[in-house]
Amino acid sequence: MTERRFGGQWRIAMMVTLAVTLASCAPSLQTLVPPDTDRPDEFLWENGLAALEEERWLDARTYFLQIIDGYPQSPFRPDAKLGVGDSYLGEGSAESSVFATNEFQEFLTLFPTHERSDYAQYKLAMAHFEQMRSAERDQTETKAALVEFDLFFENHPNSPLTAEVRENWRIARDRLSEASFGVGLHYFRVDWYPGAIDRFREVLRDDPEFTDRDQIYFYLAESLSQTDKTAEAIPYFERLLTEFESSEHLDDARTRIQLLKNQ
Q1: Residues 210 and 244 sit within 8 Å (Cβ to Cβ)
Q2: pLDDT tens profile 110-161
Q3: What are phi and psi of 131, to 5 degrees?
Q4: Is 236 within 8 Å of 220 (Cβ atoms)?
Q5: Fewer CB under 10 Å: which end of the chain, C or N?
Q6: Which domains are present in the chain?
Q7: Contact by Cβ (8 Å): 60, 48
């Protein structure tokens, strides 16, 4: 059992605690399903969907759990499992994201070839994505989100969700690059240019499409010029001018190119 897949013993303890709480407060099956209902699982599914759309997360989860626990042969059971995960994800807390992670992981284990396994993989990534911290802080959740996004691309190359997933992957990848850039910028500001150069080049190597790479180009070029590497610095200033129509560094880059070439 790996940390990435199951979150450790503390996560299990949290899930057990919540399960006990839900069991104590959830309405009974007889309360949820009218006695004259021909298809009780479909009744539960439709009401769960309605509650989910209205962001009544606990109500939705209660309906979906009744399907999972009471109707093991129901065709709605896999979707109900996803609905439970969505209800946790909708709550938006760190604790509920842990439970969402578990639900989507279990779905992929139980229904690996299901037609909605791409959705489960995407939402598993989003459970980590929603817990990403700012670039100045720990990036553990960002890295976990990227791992799951990459699994989506690997396992579901033709999914209709790909465009949406790629947008969120870009946000997560940018966050990780911003974190590395921040370290390099700190080195630059304390005049440790070799460290800054290494960190800026690392970002360009690992994430060549970084959205804010204009900053990388500028500060990498400045760091190189400060270490008497003018011939290496100028191309980065020029890439900044070529690749970006708008950037706070455009005017400075033009000035620096002229000064360096005059030298």
Answers
A1: no
A2: 999 999 999 999 999 999 999 999 999 999 999 999 999 999 999 999 999 9
A3: -105, 10
A4: yes
A5: C
A6: 1-115 (1.25.40), 191-263 (1.25.40.10)
A7: yes
